[in-house]
Amino acid sequence: MGLDIRVITATEFPAWLLAVRRGFLEASAKGLQEDAAARLARTDLSRVRGAFDGERCVATFRSFAQELTVPGGARVAVDAISGVTVAPTHRRRGLLSRMMAADLAEAKERGEVAATLIAAEYPIYGRFGFGPSTSLTEWEVDLLRSGLDRGDPLAGGAPDGGRVEFVDAEDVTKLGPEIHAGLAARQHGVVDRPASWWGLHTGVGVQAVDKWTEPFYALYRSASGEPEGLVTYRTKDDWSDGKQPRDTVIVSQLIATTPAAERALWRFVCSIDWVTTVRSGYRAPDDLLPLLLPDPRAARVVTHTDWLWTRVLDTARLLAARTYARDATLVLDVRDDAGLAGGVFRLDASPHGAVCAPDTRSPDLTLDVRDLSAVQLGDESVQRLVALGRIDENRPGAAALADGAFRTARRPWCPDVF
């Protein structure tokens, strides 16, 4: 019997979910039916594919609608990809290639300008036109050597007249989306969070089979009372020496709509009694945290990696959606073997907006779609990719001009995994 790749039905969803678990090295089927029922309620089955060998699901793929912030603050519709697995018994049979091709073609038809994913393994997705567009850093802060004045915990206040206060899960589900929307308006690389996200991250959507520990939630309000920041964290006790607590705060999210709110929340986290160590969670590589410390070396990098990968599907619309650091006119020859985003395009870029359209002139730069995907959020350097031999500079100075336009003052950041 041959392999059949198809959009799955509701009755096939548990088998598909079991294949996802196995693909991510979870052997247990405990609570599968309950988990499937909960997930099915928030899943668009028309965008879920499986490869079946008889009745057994041996490869999985799903996508869902997402919005991505590009430089300048515009939100664009993208195709978010997740749940990608191929059983080790069925590798090298083209299953992922076929599912990816079908999904990207449908996304292009829907008018989504790019696709996004978080890559569990680096080498897989470049061949499909994806490039790493953001990276992240996690720090571990040794508060005892940070130079912070631990005797001034700010008493819930902040230097600008704002205030940090504890809130509960219900407050988070009400106020969190507003704060996140404010973050998305100012931070490129951020993806949207649907209502189900807030439920899952406050325990509402967590199944009994999953482990859930209620975190602490703290909210920052400005002097006028507006909610401008939110931090979620858990703690890890350590009384190992029997005399002095050496607890750790583990931040799972810290989002803010203003730098003042961000600074105040970090000060709050770093002033909690008994705490000697703070794990920052996944932050932008240029996060404020280290430089808030009198001794920035007290913040030790424990993780630094690529994070959000993107795949351009509509070159003209995506490049026209963002703003640029300087005026520039560039003709780009984009190569795309899949036939989705390729062609020669003239980009007229400016800090106020851009126009991008097909063109017939000689190109200034020739690049693969995976490299355009890597540079389009402003984090990767065109000149670096030229030096690597991945981009051809056909006009002297074109790479420097492109970097001057595409690169951004602050680095893109995606705080979420999906």
Question: What is this structure, in a nutshell?
Answer:
By secondary structure, this protein is of the alpha+beta class. The chain contains eleven helices and 19 strands. 25% of the residues lie in helices and 31% in strands.
Word description of this protein:
The structure is a single chain. With about 425 residues, this protein is of the alpha+beta class. Helices cover about 25% and strands about 30% of the residues. It contains eleven helices and 19 strands. The strands form three sheets. A seven-stranded mixed sheet has the order 1-2-3-4-5-14-6, with helices on both faces. Strands 8-9-10-11-12-7-13 form a seven-stranded mixed sheet, with helices on both faces. A hairpin with a 7-residue loop joins strand 15 and strand 16 (about 345-350). The longest helix is centred in the middle third of the chain and has 18 residues, at about 170-185. The relative contact order is 0.14.
